[in-house]
Amino acid sequence: MFTGREKELQYLNDYYMKPGTQILVVYGQKGIGKTTLLEQFVEDKDCLYYEAISCSTRQQRVFMASHLEDMGISMPQYPEFEELFSIIEESEDNKKILVIDEFQNMCKTDNEFFEALYEYINREDKKDMFIILCSSSIGWVENSMVGKLGALSRMLSGFYKIKELKYQDFVAHFPLFSKEDSIGAFSILGGVPGLWQYFNDEFTLRENIESFILQSNERLFDYGQQYVAEELRETAVYNTLLGALADGKRKLNDLYHHTGFSRAKISVYLKNLMQLEIVEKVFSVDTDGHDNTQKGIYQIKHPYVHFYYRYLFPNQTKIMFWETEEFYDQYIAPTFKDFVAGCFKRVCHEFLEKENAMGRLPGKFVSKGQWVGKKGNIDFIFQDDEDEILAGICNWKKEMMMFEDYQLLMECQEDAKIKSEYVILFSAGNFDNRLREEVKKNEKLALISLEQIHF
Known about the structure:
Blueprint: H1 6-16, E1 22-27, H2 34-41, E2 47-51, H3 57-70, H4 81-85, E3 96-101, H5 104-107, H6 112-121, E4 129-135, H7 138-143, H8 145-149, E5 158-161, H9 167-173, H10 179-189, H11 193-196, H12 205-212, H13 223-231, H14 235-246, H15 252-259, H16 263-275, E6 279-282, E7 297-300, H17 303-312, H18 316-321, H19 324-332, H20 336-357, E8 365-372, E9 377-384, E10 389-395, E11 400-401, H21 403-416, E12 422-427, E13 430-431, H22 433-441, E14 445-449
Parallel strand pairs: 1-4, 1-5, 2-3, 3-4, 10-12, 11-13, 12-14
Antiparallel strand pairs: 6-7, 8-9, 9-10
Helix pairs in contact: 1-2, 10-17, 10-20, 13-17, 14-17
């Protein structure tokens, strides 16, 4: 599956064309599409690909040699890394590419691989090559790798993080979904194309959930917990915290009272989850309304992990013994609109960014954010170079956005001590008559329905 990665592909090709030997670290969360991107990149190039596994360094060399043997290259049974690297000499005209996938497994025990690589690339007679070190371990790459490698890290040419795809890529991949189902599915799968393969847009969203998530023999059934367990120990603690966050306990004090863990312990574990981009801390834009801002709020960032801990984790017994349709009606349907609401804000943000890039907004906005207040929220705040502000809110849950919602937005602006020149209200439902009359009188107010959001 190769979707929406043209910019990343161009980046790799540009790096490939640089003179000399380059060592690039490419990383991103599991399922984000790193391997698919690399397969596309090396399709017409001279490449050796190897996926490292967790084992001793000696065993790693044996596996690499076996891989080369399968390619018809004669190797000793127990080679040194220098002998493995020597296959590069067989490349005649084009620059050789060496891809080591999940390379953290090559160096978590010792630095032998990197020491040998350093010696090899500094040989006077060696040929130029492009080495791509790929990893799904975000926390390790960003927080531990350089310390582990020490001075050896200086030979790295750069880092390139593969991020989630956007909603517009999701829409292109699932053209048959209705808009409601598309946004609902995106709230579960997010921009992680490795998860998209498990859904089918020829079915409704409900049918996808019942068929591909709530069945114990399906890959997604326990994927959320497995994703957490792959990177973290003490899963009982992390499961407890994630379950509490998914249940709406988003402040440190709430987590303390619910879990019984000490505040210090919770803070440490939340930090670990944030390093893995499973959890995030919610920040408001900096305004003069500090006293009216909610602070210290956490939420689950990874969409599928959020869905899993919201609906599957606390209901394991019921899932096993209840009929699937009955479980959906009882435990998912009543709160699913609340769950999707956060994703709808993300979609509205992306729509505004697209409109801004195409010059369709009343200004050229250069910064964006949100404001989380004690009375209510401002879902988006865009600001241009002249400090003019575009602000607004997004309604997914209610059948109709009311004039009172607009009034609350104005009150939140007063609390935040900002004044917007322009206001946009998004609603998946209808707008009441007072809002429709107001927009006729106020040229700086816009109402955007779900049908008007196009990508």
